[in-house]
Amino acid sequence: MNPQRPLASFVKTQEVDTSQWHVQWHEVRRRVRRHRQVRVASAVVAALLVAGVVAGLVLRRPEPRLLPGQTLGAGSLAQTQRLVEGSEISVTPGGEVQLLAADDTEVVLLLERGRAAFDVEKRPARRFVVKADGVEVRVVGTKFTVERDGRHVEVSVLRGIVEVREGGVVTRLERGQRWSRQPEVDVATGAVTPPTAPLPPTGERIGERGIAPSVTELKQEHPRQRPTPTPTPATSAPEPTPEALPPAPPSTDPTPAETFALAMRARAAGHATEAIRSFQQVCERWPSSAYAPMSAFEWGRLALDTQADPRQAARAFERTLELATSASLIEDALARLAEAYARYDVGSCRRVQAEYLRRFPEGPHVRGVTKACPP
Predict the structure, then answer these.
(1) Which residues are paired to 135 by β-bridges?
(2) Bridge partners of 147?
């Protein structure tokens, strides 16, 4: 290399095409913008997915289900709710239904008052029972209603077949048929006496299914069959007419039915102490009335569930066993009595447990009673 020679002579300059630079730079910018748009779109999609999941969790809340021990109704509005096993219960205003047991083998409900409709999921291996004042309605899968007003109980079948059991008598009802028990009420004492036989399903006459007429129907006489009074001879002296007695003043004392209704209203309003006082009054003043056994049972339920007083509840359930004649009420009272004794008297709890298992080895409360007494 000649040091005297300029450096530029050794470098060969090349012409650069600037248009190619612009093309390449434009491609780089396009790719950058594309990657940026992809990142923004991914973020938006992820945000939308998260928002959708959150909205689904918020809007699709789990449907409330009625659990054993809970009560549906007793309000001024109609209520509808599903059980855990899928059956649906609808209670009219003023009605009240309590779920006693619910598992894979049986579902047992107690209609305390009012009217309720039951849409039962068909499961042949599961027993579905609705109790109402000594009346049991058993189904496999159907839709029916049960209405209770005091001692009056009415069952109407909308779909399927049910069996109504009362006092060892079983009546089979099909779609469109109705079973009703209309009690006779003594106006003077307020005592309620159930009829000798339930009314037959709607559309059937007395005697078609071997159902005997009630006492009231036997007492009714056709006007043409009434005996003609024997005329009195003209020579006989007329009998003296007794002086008309003044009408008796209306009684201000409440009847068992009125006292029981007062207690139920107090209970629905949340006044447990007032309701217990009225239930106790029915048991003490009218122990032979039809309202006394249920009053004792409701007294025990309030004492145990609302006031957390197992000793008072045990006294009430013991009183229920003294007054009750219905097998279903005796069964429920024994189960609740074991629950009350389990909180303070293990020996009595085991005694009641053994009595329940002896009398009702396949009852709906077997599982709860077996686990009630502490070790």
Answers:
(1) 132
(2) 115, 154
Give a yes or no: residue 46 inside a domain: no
CATH number of the domain bearing residue 186 = 2.60.120.1440
Name 74's Cβ contacts closer than 8 Å, sequence gap at least 6: 94, 95, 96, 268
Task: Give the three-class secondary structure for 80.
Answer: strand
- Residue span of the structural domain in which 314 resides: 256-370
What's the rounded Cα separation, in Å, for the pair 59 and 51? 12
Region of 21 on the Ramachandran plot (φ > 0 left; ψ -120 to 50 alpha; else beta)? alpha
Residues 196 and 260 in one domain: no
The more confident residue out of 373 and 56 is: 373
If DSSP codes are grouped into helix, strand and coil, which group holds residue 39? helix
Q: Residue 375 has which token pair?
A: 């070790």
Look at the chain and report how many structural domains it folds into.
2
- What DSSP letter does each residue of 208-223 carry, written as one string? TTSPPPPHHHHH---G
**Which DSSP letter does residue 349 get?**
H
CATH of the domain at 326: 1.25.40.10
| H-helix or E-strand spanning residue 285 | helix 272-285
DSSP 140: S
Determine the Cα–Cα distance for residues 85 and 140; give it in Å rounded to an integer.
Answer: 13
231 within a domain of the structure (yes/no): no
| 95 neighbors 73 (Cβ within 8 angstroms) | yes
Nearest to 327 by CA among 300, 299, 303, 362: 362
> What's the alpha-carbon Rg for the chain, to the nearest Å?
39
The answer to whether residue 248 sits within a structural domain is no
pLDDT confidence bin for 140, thresholds 50/70/90: low
Reference 109, options 65, 152, 66, 154; nearest CA is: 66
User: What was the pLDDT predicted at 300?
Assistant: 94
Residue 5 lies in a domain: no
Q: At what angle do helices 292-301 and 272-285 cross, to 10 degrees?
A: 150
Q: Select from 205, 225, 244 the last residue of a domain.
A: 205
Answer yes or no: do 73 and 177 share one domain. Answer: yes
Largest CA distance in the chain: 184
The model's pLDDT over 63-82, given as tens digits with 9 standing for 90+, comes to 556 777 788 876 666 778 77
Q: What is the pTM of this model?
A: 0.41
